[in-house]
Amino acid sequence: MKRTLKGRRNVRVIPGFGLTMGITVTMLSTLVIIPLASVLLYSIRLTPAEFFELITAPNVISAFLTSIVCAFIAAFINSVFGLILAWVLVRYDFFGKRILDGLIELPFALPTAVAGITLSKMYSNTGFPGKFFSGIGLDISYTHIGIVIALVFVGIPFTVRSVQPVLEALDGGYEEVAYTLGASRIRTFFKVIFPELFPSLLTGFSLALARGIGEYGSVIYISGNSAKNGTQVVSYVIMQKLERLDYSSATAIALVMLIISFVLMFAINIIQIRRSRRVNAR
Question: In whole angstroms, what is the distance from residue 75 CA to residue 151 CA?
Fold first, then answer.
């Protein structure tokens, strides 16, 4: 009997560790490792002096600041409203819930260029609600505000889809115990519910942040791409270099962009792991 159970444990639906591991390594090498290595390969064609001169150019630094700051603001907004939206979808039943839940995926399915053109038209001085904001002296299109709005649009699914499954699996008994002990709704949320949701919320934040830093299609139209007004994003500067066939400069900027994204993701993952350990230790 023990031999039979042991034999069943060793049976795998997908055949062989060697075969599956080989497929995994091949796919990772083809789709991830080799492209990233090519970025490094093209970048080292520049001398260190040329590399630092390029990445410290005023327009490049301005583009990096615009991309990172706008992406951070958009990711924070997505974290707040994404949590609220996930809460509504999980905790309440209402007419049109399935439609609203399906619309969350729209930024994934919609081409980003289409989203950028639509948003730039809506928030221009002749569109709605852009015309209203323009009337009170607030321009949105071709400003940093427009960039943030575009990044909120493309990043909101990451937060909602990261928090939603955790919220669905959260045992409602914790809330009932907190209410029984006399805790208010606000205290129950921040002391009982939020610690359970924080790791997934941080995951959604990091995904939205990484997507926002490298976003191109949705921001290229609404940003205005003005070096004078500081609305150029890093992806646009890279595209400019590629149009001039300056592959070394484009890959050098892309390498810095890759390092920044990696450092941000690594730091956020460390925070997430430590937070999860604290919660599990309680």
Answer: 8
pLDDT digits (tens, 9 = 90+) for 214-240: 888 888 888 888 777 888 888 888 888
- Amino acid found at 85: L
Axis crossing angle, helix 194-213 with helix 144-169, rounded to the nearest 10:
140
**Do 207 and 158 contact (CB within 8 A), yes or no?**
yes
The residues, ordered by sequence, that sit 6+ positions from 82 with a Cβ below 8 Å of its Cβ are 156, 158, 159, 160, 162, 163, 201, 204
pLDDT of residue 76: 94
**Predicted confidence (pLDDT) per residue in 98-112, tens digit:** 898 888 888 888 888
> Would you state the structure tokens that stand for residue 138, as one six-digit string?
């607030």
**Is there a cis peptide before residue 129, judged by omega within 30 degrees of 0?**
yes
pTM equals 0.82
Higher pLDDT, 159 or 45: 159
Asked whether 115 and 38 are in contact (CB, 8 A), the reply is: no
3-state class of 247 per DSSP? helix
What Å distances lie between residue 76 and 23, 148, 156, 200, 273, CA to CA? 37, 11, 10, 14, 20
